[in-house]
Amino acid sequence: MFLKLASYEASILAWRFRYVFNTRCQYVGTIRYISDMFPIRVSDMLEKKTSEYRCFVAGKYTTKLQRVDSDSCTDNVLPPKSLLIATPLEAGEFSLLLFLHGYLLNNSFYSQFIQHIASHGFIVIAPQLYVFAGPDTSDEIHSAAAITNWLSEGLYKFLPPNVRPNFGKLALAGHSRGGKTAFALAMRKLNITTNLKFSALIGVDPVDGMDKGKQNPPPVLTYVPHSFDFDMATMVIGSGLGELKSNPLFPPCAPKGVNHENFFNECQKPSWYFVAKDYGHFDMLDDDTKGIKGVATYFLCKNGESRKPMRSFVGGAIVAFLKAYLHGDNGELLAIRDKHENLPVEIKFDYFV
Asked: What is the pTM of this model?
């Protein structure tokens, strides 16, 4: 029924990054405004498509990226980890998305992606959970929970004037190992709880280890159909090329048995599942990812022809899903389901609601 896909595997890639160094930038003040001189409207970067698929092109809001360091000298309440925040500039109240990066990746690699989502009226918070990490994801789960608990106390101090976060509409998402971490946090693994409730959960090519029976601790998948007991809607997005080797030297970035297909199989309704057939595990990242880590994303996994179509699809699908389950507007989500031949990428899909 489905093209079996793979997502990114954390432990397999650890040794590949042994000599990667992530230089920490030093900033003056608490916030480094990346786009102070030229606020970014994503519509300047993407061509327009049909009005049915507004979610796949830039939204109506001008966006700004800003970095908040966890070790700055300031009187404000600092976050437990450094953050990259994409936010609308226009005044209003906006729902929130906490987005967790993939294994050994920089949160800055998702800059174009999170700005796309923010341009549709969402505040996206992307923490840098770690620089290096072993196979155990426990620290990441604790960090994600701590950031969630900080939001209501400290986030508003780092937003533009008249931009108000709606903490009652908070979604959780993650890519690759970050997808596993997001599901683990939603499942309250390690007996961790948060002071804010999540209203929607998204896995972007999530992966739970090297293979069935070789899951990274703490394991998330149980291999029992519909065993995830969430009180929220879920969406899983997969890549069609993730299970394929990029070359004979490296294993697939996402082995079968621990990937998005397995995550969706364990979700309960309502749940949505989209697979981008001809695109790879890193194809939703920025067009230009710098540094040793960034260069590695071009050859460690089998990739599609370009990143822009996959990034537009994943960002747009998330926007449509959030509008449906946070705002009660399911028009674009149903349009993706019913008219997928006009999407930025060719997909397979399933859902149960």
From this structure: 0.85
Where would I find the H helices in the chain?
Answer: 10-14, 111-118, 138-154, 177-186, 260-266, 291-296, 308-327, 331-338
Burial class (CB in 10 A: 0-12, 13-18, 19+), 168: exposed
| Distances 13 to 21, 191, 307 between C-alpha atoms, Å | 15, 28, 21
Percent helix, strand and coil across the chain, each rounded to 5? 30, 20, 50
In the residue annotation, 229 being an active-site residue is answered as no
Question: Known catalytic residue: 205?
Answer: yes
* Alpha-carbon span 167 to 298, nearest angstrom: 37
With 0-12 / 13-18 / 19 or more C-beta atoms within 10 angstroms meaning exposed / middle / buried, residue 337 is middle
Contact 181, 217 (CB under 8 A): no
pLDDT tens-place string over residues 8-53 = 333 334 334 333 333 333 332 333 333 333 344 433 333 334 446 7
287 has catalytic annotation: no
Among 298, 297, 340, smallest CA distance to 316 is for 340
Catalytic: which of 69, 205, 208, 283?
205
